[in-house]
Design brief:
GO molecular function: proton-transporting ATPase activity, rotational mechanism
Subunit structure: V-ATPase is a heteromultimeric enzyme composed of a peripheral catalytic V1 complex (components A to H) attached to an integral membrane V0 proton pore complex (components: a, c, c', c'', d, e, f and VOA1).
CATH superfamily: ATPase, V1 complex, subunit F
Radius of gyration: 15 Å
Organism: Dioszegia hungarica
Shape: globular
Number of helices: 6
Number of strands: 4
Membrane topology: Peripheral membrane protein
Distance between the termini: 37 Å
Family: Belongs to the V-ATPase F subunit family.
Strand order of the largest sheet: 2-1-3-4
Structural class: alpha/beta
Helix content: 40-55%
CATH topology: Rossmann fold
Strand content: 15-25%
Oligomer: single chain
Length: about 120
């Protein structure tokens, strides 16, 4: 019963990505700021420190209100060990392309895990 309650509480998307990706998703309506001024997104640019990305990734994967975490693949590459280590079902982790960086299936941690399960 408590797991069903937890799943019902997971009603947000979170995003870690470049400004164009975040802007597009915010315009689509995914933005959320809670009563403690915590946002469900992090804009990453060339000046963003890896520790900030790592911290946001940790926070978003531990939050109980997030169902899906989207992360630009080129940003995920900056914290690849943490992304590859992440195994939980919720929030689901999806690597997405950006305007400047096309999607590379060989880097996707979820796809690698599926291929390993299939024996590819």
């Amino acid at each position: 019963m408590s797991s069903q309650v937890n799943l019902k509480d997971r009603n947000l998307l979170a995003v870690i990505g470049d400004e164009d990706s975040i802007t597009g998703l915010l315009l689509a309506g995914i933005g959320h700021v809670d009563q403690h001024q915590k946002k469900n997104f992090l804009i990453v640019d060339s000046k963003t420190q890896t520790s900030v990305i790592e911290s946001a990734f940790q926070e978003f994967t531990e939050r109980k209100d997030i169902a899906i975490l989207l992360i630009n693949q080129h940003v995920a590459d900056k914290i690849r060990p943490s992304v590859d280590k992440y195994q939980a079902a919720f929030p689901a982790l999806l690597e997405i392309p950006s305007k400047e960086h096309p999607y590379d299936p060989s880097k996707d941690s979820v796809l690698k895990r599926v291929q390993k399960l299939r024996g590819d």
